[in-house]
Recover the amino acids of this structure.
């Protein structure tokens, strides 16, 4: 369950000062206009995808991804930046990510190192740590690189015959050598929803594996033959035992852990009593807007790189 990068605070509703040991971002309502992690800053056209060498002889910027799905990061003057390796030719085993401003980008699975092609690395960090602080291009390339590398590592054998696949089209196709069938990257749709009472209260829940005191909105996977809206109603009923209506789409966010696309919604509850399925979640409660603004509700909210936090903040600010 997740949220978007940094935004601005409305002048008429500043967040309260931080208290205790909790960071200021536990207060909702501060992030109201936030871009979600996206790939819109770069392009990988059909022609480039089909070429043996997508770089076509041009320089290539390679983004290394380690076994923990982290990338090399340098702390620049304007914030964290990904560290790319400049290559004169296409690296063996690289996956084509796309092109931006005439530069080809690729991802390569490698061990982490203290430097990349002579450039210093301050840290190896993943999407959860730096996704919200990166620029649009870096964030988009990182989420794409993590997602496609995850797909390759989880799908090394054909689902049709079980044969080991071969990699084609610069990493965007795996071929079953026995049947000749092509296997393409997949994405699992999931719904994530803020359930409100039509007034000033919403339902937040927590999983037992989360840090103590952290609450978020509800979420779950879309099942075969099910619409996203039906999945919202089913998941809410299963997790907290209430019925909903007025299911409205808000926005989406790729979340490659391992290969989800989070579809964000709001929905209005038609019943109030919570009947919690403890196999799904540990705890769920109604919280008011004032509690979320003041930080007197949950001890922690989702990080600001997640769509969950994006939806919570927009609802608290009255935008949804």
């Amino acid at each position: 369950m997740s949220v978007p990068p940094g935004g601005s605070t409305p002048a008429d509703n500043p967040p309260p000062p931080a208290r205790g040991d909790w960071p200021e971002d536990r207060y909702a309502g501060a992030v109201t206009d936030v871009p979600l992690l996206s790939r819109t800053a770069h392009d990988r056209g059909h022609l480039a995808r089909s070429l043996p060498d997508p770089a076509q002889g041009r320089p290539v910027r390679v983004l290394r991804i380690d076994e923990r799905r982290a990338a090399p990061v340098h702390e620049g003057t304007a914030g964290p930046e990904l560290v790319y390796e400049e290559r004169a030719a296409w690296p063996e085993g690289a996956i084509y990510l796309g092109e931006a401003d005439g530069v080809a980008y690729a991802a390569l699975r490698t061990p982490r190192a203290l430097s990349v092609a002579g450039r210093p690395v301050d840290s190896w960090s993943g999407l959860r740590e730096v996704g919200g602080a990166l620029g649009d291009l870096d964030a988009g390339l990182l989420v794409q690189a993590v997602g496609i590398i995850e797909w390759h590592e989880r799908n090394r054998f054909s689902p049709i015959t079980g044969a080991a696949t071969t990699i084609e089209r610069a990493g965007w196709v795996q071929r079953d050598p026995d049947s000749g069938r092509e296997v393409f990257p997949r994405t699992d749709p999931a719904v994530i929803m803020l359930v409100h009472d039509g007034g000033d209260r919403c339902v937040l829940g927590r999983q037992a594996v989360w840090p103590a005191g952290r609450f978020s909105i509800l979420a779950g996977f879309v099942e075969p033959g099910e619409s996203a809206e039906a999945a919202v109603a089913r998941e809410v009923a299963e997790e907290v035992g209430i019925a909903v209506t007025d299911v409205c789409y808000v926005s989406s966010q790729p979340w490659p852990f391992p290969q989800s696309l989070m579809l964000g919604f709001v929905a209005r509850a038609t019943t109030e009593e919570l009947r919690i399925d403890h196999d799904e979640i540990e705890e769920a409660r109604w919280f008011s807007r004032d509690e979320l603004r003041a930080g007197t509700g949950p001890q922690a909210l989702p990080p600001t790189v997640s769509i969950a936090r994006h939806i919570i903040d927009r609802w608290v600010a009255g935008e949804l």
